[in-house]
UniProtKB/TrEMBL annotation:
Biased composition (Basic and acidic residues): 941-953
Signal peptide start and end residues: 1-24
Alphabetical list of SMART domains matching this protein: FN3, IG, IGc2
Membrane-spanning parts: 958-981
Source organism of the structure: Laodelphax striatellus (Small brown planthopper)
Residue ranges occupied by any Fibronectin type-III domain in the UniProt entry: 429-522, 524-625, 837-931
BP GO annotations: anatomical structure morphogenesis; cell differentiation; cell-cell adhesion
Domain (Ig-like) ranges: 29-117, 119-220, 221-317, 335-419
InterPro entries reported in the protein's UniProt record: FN3_dom, FN3_sf, Ig-like_dom, Ig-like_dom_sf, Ig-like_fold, Ig_I-set, Ig_sub, Ig_sub2
Residues covered by region (Disordered): 914-953, 1087-1124, 1155-1179
Name assigned to this protein: Uncharacterized protein
Signal is among the record's keywords: yes
Amino acid sequence: MAARVFLLSVLFTVGLSTFRSSEGLEVGLGFASEPNDAVVSRNRPLLLNCEPSHSTNNTTVHWTFNNDLVIPDTRRTILNNGSLYIKKVLYKKATQGVSDIGVYRCLIRNSYGTLLSRPAHVRLASIGHEFAESPANISVQIGEAARLQCHIESTPLPLITWERNSHPLPQNNRYITLNSGILIIRSVDSSDEGEYRCIGTNEILNKVRRHSAVGQLTVRPRSPITADVEFISPVQPASVKRVMEGSTATLDCVVSGRTTDVTWTYKLPNQTTDFVSEMKRSVNVLTLHNVTQAHEGAYTCTAIPQDMNTAVDDEMADEPPPFTRVVTLEVLSPPLLVKKPKSQVYPTAKTVRIECEAKGNPLPEIVWLKNGQTLRINGRVSARNQSLVISNSVSDDTGIYQCVLNNSVGGAWAAARVFVNVSGDQPMAPTRLHCSAASATQVTVTWHQPPPPPPTNRQVQAYTVHYVPTDGGEEMRTVSLNRSFTVSNLLPFTNYTFYIRAYDTKSASDQSLPVTCLTGEEVPVGAPEVNVVSENPTSLSVSWTPLSSKVARGRVSEYKIQWRRNDHHSTNNVDTVKEHVTHYLITGLQPDTKYEVRVLAATEQGWPSLPEEALPWSLVQTLPVEPDAPLLPMPALQLVVLNATTILVKWSLEPVQQKVDGFHFSYRKQNGELLGPELIEAGKTEHVLADLEPQMWYEVVMSGISSGVEGESAVRSIQTWASLADEASLLPLPAPTHLLAEPISPSAINLTWQAPPHHNISHYTLSYHVVQTALPLHNSSIYFLNRYMLYICRYNYIYNNNIYITICTAIKMHDNDRHSEYSQKLECRTLEDLPGAVYDVQWKLLNTTSVRISWKEPVKVNGVIANYTLAYSPNPNQPLTEWTKTIVPATKLSANLTTLKNNRYTLKIWASSGAGPGPPSPSLEITIPSKLPNGRSKHPPKPDHSTVPKPDPKPDQILGIVIGCVIGASCIIMCTILLVYRHKCTKPGPVCRTGQAAANGSTGGFYLPPSTAFDEMHEMECFTGHLDTKGGFPQDQVNGLKLTLLTNGRIPNGHATRERDHGVRITENPQFNSPIGNLSPGSCDGVSGGGGGGGDCRRVASDEGDSLLSGHQEGDGEEEGDCASLNDTQLTTLDCCQTKAEQAAAMIASAGAADDDDGFHENETHRTHHHLILLGPNG
């Protein structure tokens, strides 16, 4: 509490010394004219206007083109008034040369900051070579309406005229032309027949004319058969038309068929009646000039045939006409500023809020600029509900801020100037900031603190370390007493940006230059998304999507592909590939068989350590073999190394009945991506692989093709030579194949394999390791086997005595001088074993018929726990099979036994897995009393509902009740009188929401919550509780907080010392002015008048409820010209003598107590101790 009060005094002093009125503060920079959009033709001059306002002094003007600074030259010149003149506009495609077509902005700058003008889009005048839409061939009857339409792309919009039979249209009111390229002909007659086409021109490119294709209008005689009503326009029953605000909107409704009257209906906003247009024959064109938001809505075109029977029944008279079309008119409007930002002055460590509200259709997006540059919204800078909020303001926040609003229609902007007033003697900002990752979740930050500037020579007492995810997130902070700090609880493999602020006994420094650090790696927390496709009956194509950085939590170093038959869950086939590979081909599978496939990713820290259910498998079935097209057998594949970079591939295929169309050939480098397949002609039996890497293993896959179906695949591996000098060395042996594993016990698996024929094998090397240890294969355990062994790998009581484990195995073979590559790896899980005994079994009495039993999981699970069995019996000598049993799911470690009728039971618990039930726990005796401690019996009697008169209370009980009521009423009356009396002497304080800080004894340490629950920067809104007339507080409360101020000679921040008057001194506030006279503390007597302190103090303006509260003023606090409401507050200071460590602790607690304010300031004092401010009821 003392630290918080000390912080208030510091902030008040800084507020008085740095506050400046916002009244009269202007942006100090503006435009007299801004550039506008322009359409120009090639090789013509262009002038873009830009002129600073006349009230702006010492202003420099610059231009940007597509966000790059324009450097004036002989072709582009910035005029004296700031405008940009381009002598000759150039246009070439971006990849072919210089182009002046793009976005221009004018940038003006002075000592206050920088302003950026609205964007001026310069476009090249153009018109399409052909019409995108030409008139269609139509046929109409005499007297009906015709509608023709055409469209051509043009910048600016084209001027469309119409021709009939290559001549301009005659002047006739039956011809209606619309600006959108539409021609409507009313009451067509035979003279209207002919060829119609459009002529498109561009107002800038005057010499360019485009002609559309010809559309034939055929006029037929009127048929005696009445045709149905048909809408030519609009065609759809409901459509949307979008127009610009202020433009002219044209809605045309054209109907053919029976003689029909057409009208438009629109419901006016806030009106009970509808707008109905004039009724016209077959064609009705509604034109709306100067469209506004009031014109938005649904317009209904209604067609009423004249021959419709008007003699309808009364109940049908209100039915809507049967022929309607609805057009919804949407009015698009550019952004319009509703509330412009205001220029303001702020002290340091304040929350800056800049509001910018706008409307428009579509709703505009807001981009914030500071001094002409896009502001990064991150950490302490946030955008909320069309407002910009900057917490913990520093001097670097001073500048001109713009809110730029844009939508598809247009744009707007507004600006405000922010000035952050700082103390002239604040400490220097820390320098030489350095960070390094200590682990996946920790970063160590170190820095240097420059010496304090003279003449203050105040030493830095504490630092705040600020950090935020670089890619965006909430800014966090912590406090350090040293110039080194380790930040914990960070996200793995995430960039964080750090900066430091220093604090002395009076104020806070600006923030240091930021530094960015990447945390360490961790194992992934998920698996890639997998797509599996069966391309032929014996193979599966597997592809996957790389993990996101959030899931990978590091750089992926390799992928593991696992596959198994759906009915063989104990054994997985495994292969690994490098991090850049995202595709794998699984070969050698059985046709028409279900397989499960999974891909896992690993970082340098290992594979995911997740339960099996969190890493799902993908189920897929291989294609069946068609009866009339059997699969080709596996080719006999042979690999020969020719030199260090070349392999000769030979193959042969046993005679088959079906025709061989060719071969698919693929290969890959060890752990690399499969390259191919390459189609090889059927007659070939050799292929050369060249340009390979020396001393590298390569895998070759070969399969035959018949009738478009791929046969069984042959897979072989071989290693190239190390160099040309090794060409005479012996060829390596091929790897063993058909490695199979079968679990035979909880601690053993049976391995079998096949060796290639015609090789004199001397022995085998078996390598294995436990899966999920992240050990590479060469770190595995190795055994040497003779060539006759059918090897059984017994794996018991190894790796922390785990029985139910997964083993990854691989094998290679040797002769006297050579060895092969390891075979394909195989993962096999041993069988489950019986679980161990549960332990720590306890019971708790719930009532006379129920108990709660709890236990802990066995130390040795040896598999997967399926359930727990609770067996209990009143007779322990009874056979266990006859005991009462309750089955509990494996997810629970407690259960209730109810409806117990006996007083004594014996209980045993055991766990069960797939291998069976484990051993039972030791017997537990349960004793149930007949009566509970509260006196209730085991079998409570039934309630007696008979009416029995209750005895009267004893006389001494009535007397006690009366005395208690009298005493209570007397206390209430006395408290009420006292509260009323005290209310006359004080003013009510604000309603407070406060946090708490706990002292830590003599060490001065404080618990700092991660974030105090204050809204933005309202931590100083109110801190006061009720003061009595002597400046005291209620028991155990300080400023409304229930914290003990003095306990056993201690103060919250440390020990009270015997120095300086041997204790604590209470000082009256010399600035206190009583509202009813010049009173001394503790009395309510006197006449009205000035207080002892006079009226010389500072008034601190309040923004958003924030108040800077002051304490005892010395020195510059007595300046003239300002006034504070503090004169209405009886203020006392508690002079506590503290050590430097205790002062630092107080500052740390203060820094952590405020939500968005870490400024730390204190009144200038000539004492070796500091003041703790106790606030009166007025704050």
